[in-house]
Amino acid sequence: MNAEIPILTILVAWPLVAALVLWLVRPLHGAARTYGIAVSLVEVVLAIVAVALFDVVHAGTVQLTEQVPWIPAIGASWALGVNGLGLTMVLLAVALVPVVMIARQPGEGGPDWGWVVLVLLLTATVVAVFSARDVFLFYVLFEAMLFPVYFLVGRYGGPDRRRAALKFLLYSLAGGLIMLVGVVAVHGYGPGGEQAFLIDNLAGNLTASEGAERLLFVSFFLAFAIKAPMVPVHTWLPDTTQQADAGTSTLLVGVLDKVGTFGMIVLLLPLFPNASAWAAPVVVVLAIVSIIWGGLVALAQRDFMRLTAMTSVSHFGFIVLGIFVGSATAMTGSMIYMVAHGISTAAMFLTLGYLEKRGQSQWIPNYRGMQRVTPVLAGLFLVAGLASIALPGLSGFVPEYLVLVGTFEANWLAAAFAVMGVIIAALYVLLPYQRMFTGPKEEGIPGAPDLVAREKWAMAPLVVAMLALGFFPGPVLDVLTPIADSSAPLVQTVAADNTTAMAVEGSAK
Q: Which of 5, 75, 238, 479 could form a disulfide with 84 if both were Cys (CB 3.0 to 4.6 A apart)?
């Protein structure tokens, strides 16, 4: 049934229309940034309306649905709808946009209007991809959201921005093209009809053989692993964040990369449950490698933007581990981890962006004693770093705890290796803090200004969110737990069914 109010389509259309208007007008000076802040705040209000219309009691079911034919010849439709996870990710996306708008210094890197237009386009595509219930629509949006990021990096980034933007685009397009093969194959193995690509119709109704299902799984998983990002297809991320401005990096790592793990939950598990069970042991190993390798490489970095990127590789390893280990507890932790990481990594990128503006460098050895020069900036970086390493009372603690507890229940050996990532995380956050912010201020940048009011206002909601999610995670857990209860057991249940079938067959022989 279609929702009485097409709130999801409105959430997509509003930033699109606003971006078109701004592109036509192209105002000078700071008007574009003010306009962008106003548009993004209205988007937040619209998201709150969606929350009010959403029935939390049935958070595990898809709600606020809208569906109209799009390409009838192939059965593709404009089908939107969200369960608790989709709605949570939409909220995260629209909440971070005004934060980066406020944090951006007017005229930074080029005309404000162009940057705001691209961010608004990115907002629309991200909201749509988190709401898409049609596989073909999901694929189109998955590819479309790459182009605003490409131009944000290539136009407003650092001196080597064009190479970084091209590398990002090539990696993402390569994964997307492989995924397109899977999308076409899914259509062929599906039930067909006017709703041939609808996820709910495809789940459990694919006629693919065991081998074909595994190939389909791989085609989708590779695209999601690049987006996530996972080792060994992660190398585009540090280059991109090193060259992108802090706001773009915030949206890229805090929101866009979550599309990879979101796709694993909403597409891979329901469409390919047998292949998911078959691939789970390998994916768990890759996740553990990402956790440890990402952390160790982060420790070796001397560029703080590359360091933050590699910490995210490690964090995404925890998220993927929770998805594929086959525990509802761990999957609940993974989903709330996606939110917590989006908040803490946004705070880290923005504070480091502020530091870079003051020191004109991302090189850690150039900074020393900044705690005495910019105490507010130093304190905010420490809070963000402690949240990312799961200090109790901050946003990262509950999700990481749930992932590890659930992993111990399902696979104690995997959990034992994953715990190593917790130890490494403490080192890759606290050691850079010591090197950049402690010591005599004469060794750093004497006279550098501390955060101004605009920068403090941008950080305030992130600090509040980190504390709220740390002390009061209940509302988010209530929304996400039903989805984990229905999705996570697919891996274990299918594996158990296969083992039972083999045992019965062996007894019969």
A: 479
DSSP 411-423: -HHHHHHHHHHHH
Q: Under a CB-based contact definition with an 8 Å cutoff, are residues 362 and 356 in contact? A: yes
Could you state, in chain order, the average pLDDT of each consecutive group of 10 residues for the chain (509 residues)? 80 95 80 91 96 91 91 90 94 95 78 89 96 94 93 89 92 91 88 81 85 91 92 90 91 92 93 91 94 93 92 94 92 94 94 90 86 90 93 92 92 92 91 87 74 92 95 92 81 45 37
The answer to whether residue 299 sits within a structural domain is: yes
Measure the CA angle with vertex 209, ends 205 and 213; round to 5°. 75
Helices then strands, counting H and E runs in the chain, come out as: 23, 2
DSSP 449-489: ----HHHHHHHHHHHHHHHHHHH--HHHHHHHHHHHHHHTH
pTM of the full predicted structure? 0.92
Domain span at residue 447 reads 272-509
**Token pair belonging to 41:** 């705040």
Q: Is 290 a member of any domain? A: yes
Residue 193, in any domain of the structure: no
Any idea what DSSP says for residue 22?
Answer: H
